[in-house]
Amino acid sequence: MSTADAYTASLVRPGYDALLAADQAALDALPVGLYLCSSDGTIRRVNCRAAELWGWASRNGMTDRRYCGAHRLHAADGALLPPGGSPMADALRSGKAARDQEVEIEQPDGSRVPVLLSVEPFKNALGQVLGGIGCFVDRPGRTAEQQYRFTDRLYRAVSLEDIYDAALDAITGTLRCDRASILLCDSAGAMRFVSWRGLSETYRKAVEGHTPWGPHEKDPPPLCIDDLAAAELPAALKAAVKAEGIGAAAFIPLMTHGVLAGKFMAYYDAPHAFSEEERDLAVTIARQLGFGLERMRAEQRRLASDEALRGSEERLRAMFDHAGVGMIVMGPDCRIVQANAAFAKIVGRPLESLVGGSCLDFTHPDDFATNRAALGALRQGHAPAVFEKRYLSPGGMSIWVRVTLSYVGVDQILAVVEDVTIRVATRAALSKSEAEFRTLADNMHQFAWMTDQTGWIYWYNKRWFDYTGTTLDEMQGWGWRKVHHPEHVDRVVAKIRACFESGEPWEDTFPLRSKDGEYRWFLSRALPIRDEEGHIVRWFGTNTDITERLRSDEQRTVLINELNHRVKNTLATVQAIVAQTLRGVDADPGIQERLEARLVALSNAHDILTQENWEGAEIHQVMARALQPHAGPARISVEGPAIRLVPKAAVALTMGMHELATNAAKYGALSTEDGHIDLSWSIDPAAPVTLTFEWAERGGPAVRKPTRRGFGSRLIERNLAHDLDGEAQIEYRPEGVRCTIACPLEAVGSLIGNGRPGRMP
Amino acid sequence: VTEVVKGYRILVVEDEGLVAMLLEDMLADLGHHVVATAGTFEKAAKSAAEADIDVAVLDLNLNGRETYVVAETLSRRGIPFVFATGYASTGVRSDWQHVPVVQKPFQLGDLEHALRAVTRPAG
Questions:
Q1: Gap between the Cα atoms of A120 and A35, Å rounded
Q2: Is the ipTM of this complex over 0.95?
Q3: How many CA atoms lie less than 13 Å away from A57 in the CB half-sphere?
Q4: Which residue in B64, B89, B105 is closest to A562 by CB distance?
Q5: CA separation (Å) from A477 to A451, A453, A484?
């Protein structure tokens, strides 16, 4: 309840009659304007405050008035309220109270007084309205209120638009103009419309840039033109003003920081006589608007820089939080002020547990000294200080980190922490394996060496130096040539150079001179070592002393040659004995010939075995050697799987084939131009695995079974079957001789290449 | 038919007496004369250096001693020769691989063929 209401209530209670009879002194003592009307609106009582607010010369001034004592009464929006339409008139008519009506009293001199008016009707017991009491207090003046509201809105403004809006409200409200606008100087100094009410685009375009003041005028005066039509203006401007229907206008300069920043305009549709008060009000609004603009601009600058700062802080913070490396900010006492997730991950502790603690809490005690030394170095200006240390995981494991320290504030240190545990472990493993490798290399029987990618030898093992009696200085690069044999060195160099260039593995055999001057033979090999991309990074080479092996190979060859020599000499001796024996008895010369052929066949079998170091022979080799004196592949086709024959079987088969071929040459398929022999053998995998030979002649003369079994057939059927632990059979079929031999494979030898067909040499 | 040149004077170097005799007979059958035989390294070396011969049949192994030195002597004198050996063909030293080898036991045809090869006039 307002003060006026309270008074009204307290006063009304005694009743209408009591009020009418109240003591004037009592009424005048009240600090509110108060008057009583009878039901027809006649003003019956007026206190002095009411008379004062109404602008009456005296309390008895305008008693002829009805309903209201004001010269004129206006509604809040400025509309004129006729006495019959005043709140008192309404209340008397309707019998309803009207409280806190905002109305404006126009005094006889034209001044206006805004008041809050409450009206209370008095009724009799029948509800008839007897009269009413009006009670009013002056409220802050409209202008002051506008000013207050403007100041408040400027204060609350968060954008230039808010400021423009508030200013335009203040201008139109205070100056009671019809239209208004605000123009600000652009960067070129020209005034541009920034906000307006009720102006057409055509008009704005026509007048924009026009200003009554010079660009750098120190104290530009406000300019009020009461009648634009009568003013001296440029024709174009005048026409635009006329077209827009503007009768009068005020040009009020806006100053910021003492400099002309723009202007605001108040437009009146009709010519308007600007009062001094209006001019002052306009200047006050302009000053406030100027301050508002200044404040807003400063605010915006501050906001912008805040924003920028906040942005960069946020970015820094984001970088810090999400960096792939661990980061902490700490004091000089190692107390953690800030830590990021990567750091928490490295040390294996929750991020929130870290801040406030000391990073020494989980630094390896053995590294305290290192840590201190690094901080000391940082203090002495060796920034950033970089060092490696260990943290301890919650489980007590060492975590190797590389720490970079730098100052980020007077006493704040940023530590960038990188987990290098794997790197350190790898490095340790590498140096360990390097050490192990050298130990191994120094103790291996071979010489070992390494080159760079070009073949420049930079390292030899100890054995090399022990043997050659040289030093690395002499040997490095291509210095090794001086321990090579002069007859071999050029060949060796040419070959190894070619390998270094092509990247092919290198292998060679050559003599190397020992420190005693003795040459020993070495089998040497080198392999390129490549990086992940396949580029050769070095060569690793070895030299293996094969002198003893070469000697034993040599000795073995000598022994086998000697054995062969003895066997053949014995056969030759037998041959000599037979020849001498037969010479004396005048025997058939064919006998010696046949005998010699058999001895040669036997000798041939031995030759093959010699070539194979008496370790057995491949069946195709044996067959070829046995048949070669008799016929080529055009006459004898050979087919069968590859088999390595044991020596005994090789000799027995050679002799058997010799007999069959000799017989064929004499009587069978090889005795004619176009006879043919098919020799084949095959494996029957059923246990025991059996090898079956077949010798089949065709195209020769018709065969007759011999009347007497000769040595040849007996050699095959008896001797060969015996030696091969099998059975042999010769059939004298009319179309050709056929010989089959079946024996267990294991008595003969073993399959080579899983039974794939072999080839004749 | 190529005419076989007959009547070479031949040196036989062979440590086994019976085999030397066999060679003598076989060479005689081919129409040649064995004018000297050597069964020891020393005698072989001397004959190779001095004997008046057209061609030689040289066993590579005399009682376990290789006879390449004898071969060198013959080469120096320009006397053609063949090896008679029990070694397989791979048993001949690499620098003498061009010399024909007659394998023991002998076949008359082989012997004749080898002699013809080394005595064929150049061109």
A1: 11
A2: no
A3: 4
A4: B64
A5: 8, 12, 14
Residue with the two structure tokens 């009724």? A123
Q: What's the CA gap between A347 and A354, in Å, rounded?
A: 10
Per DSSP, the residues of A144-187 read HHHHHHHHHHHHH--SHHHHHHHHHHHHHHHH--SEEEEEEE-T
Strand order in the sheet with A259-268: A191-197, A179-185, A259-268, A248-256, A223-225
- List the one residue out of A550, A547, A551, A543 whose CA is nearest residue A465: A543
Which neighbouring-strand residues pair with A741?
A693, A728
Smallest CA–CA distance from A600 into chain B, residue: B105
**Which pLDDT tens digit goes with each residue over A504-550?**
999 999 999 999 999 999 999 898 888 777 888 888 888 988 888 88
Chain B positions touching A599 (Cβ under 8 A) are 105
Distance CA A298, CA A526 (A): 79
Give φ, ψ of B38 to 5 degrees. Answer: -135, 130
Q: List the Cα angle A284/A290/A294 in 5-degree steps.
A: 145
Angle at B59 between CA B110 and CA A569, to 5 degrees: 80
Instruction: Please answer whether residues A463 and A448 qualify as being in contact, where contact means their C-beta atoms are separated by less than 8 angstroms.
Output: yes
Phi-psi region at A340: left, alpha or beta (left = phi > 0; alpha = psi -120 to 50):
beta
A128 touches chain B (CB under 8 A): no
* A44: enclosing H helix or E strand: strand A43-46
> What is the arrangement of strands in the sheet containing A519-530, beginning at the earlier edge strand?
A457-460, A447-451, A536-545, A519-530, A506-513
d(CA A567, CA A442): 49
pTM reported for the whole predicted model? 0.42
Give the DSSP H or E segment for A17: helix A16-20
Q: Cβ(A267)–Cβ(A203) under 8 Å?
A: no
SS3 A300: helix
Q: Which residues pair with A612 in a beta bridge?
A: none
Model confidence over A161-208: pLDDT tens digits?
888 998 998 898 888 888 999 999 888 888 899 999 999 999 999 888
The shortest CB-CB distance from A607 to any of B22, B88, B108 is to B88
